[in-house]
Design goal:
- The chain contains two helices and nine strands, in the order H-E-E-E-E-E-E-E-E-E-H.
- It is an alpha+beta fold.
- Helix 1 runs antiparallel to helix 2.
- The relative contact order is 0.14.
- About 7% of the residues have low confidence.
Length: 178
């Protein structure tokens, strides 16, 4: 009886740990940014930069942005920034780029889309303009980290309760049979 009970508890604990690891990997796959295959690089004021893990770039109003990519030769490329758009064409090797100043845009977040040969618009990244946005962004990350730590605390608490319950049940059964 005690051996079957221990197997059952062990199976439950293995199931819980696998569930937690699968849910964490699913969360990462759905929330973290994946670069568009046509995107080669982004430069702010001629300095190449990286997009953050959430697909965002923060810039100041006086900055100049260059978006470069590659695809098939002679493809028509349209880059959408808010209600504005820029057209370019891939060269003989398929390389393309657009260069634009953002001083006329309002300080907010803008999704940047690409359309290839007039096809469907696809998200490249999100461009945040303004110093206040970087402060807001940093505050959001702190809130997200606190929420993540709260979830971890809850999960660890549940795991602890299960462990205590199992040990208590085992001791009770041992006393009862012994």
């Amino acid at each position: 009886m005690e051996r079957r009970f221990l197997k059952l508890i062990l199976s439950i604990l293995i199931f819980l740990s696998l569930s937690l690891s699968l849910s964490n990997s699913t969360y990462a796959e759905t929330t973290l940014y994946k670069p568009h295959p046509s995107l080669d690089y982004i430069a702010i004021n001629n300095i190449q930069i990286e997009i953050d893990e959430y697909g965002k770039i923060l810039v100041d109003k006086q900055d100049t942005v260059k978006i470069a990519g590659r695809g098939n030769p002679n493809q028509n490329i349209t880059i959408y920034i808010g209600n504005e758009y820029l057209n370019t064409k891939g060269g003989s090797t398929g390389n393309w780029s657009v260069l634009f100043s953002i001083h006329t845009l309002e300080e907010e977040f803008y999704p940047i889309y690409i359309s290839i040969n007039g096809g469907e618009k696809e998200l490249l990244f999100t461009l945040g303009i303004g110093k206040e946005l970087s402060q807001i962004e940093n505050g959001d990350e702190e809130i997200d980290n606190k929420e993540d730590s709260n979830v971890l605390i809850i999960v660890l608490s549940i795991f602890g309760l299960i462990t205590v319950s199992v040990i208590g049940t085992m001791l009770y059964l041992k006393k009862k049979t012994g």
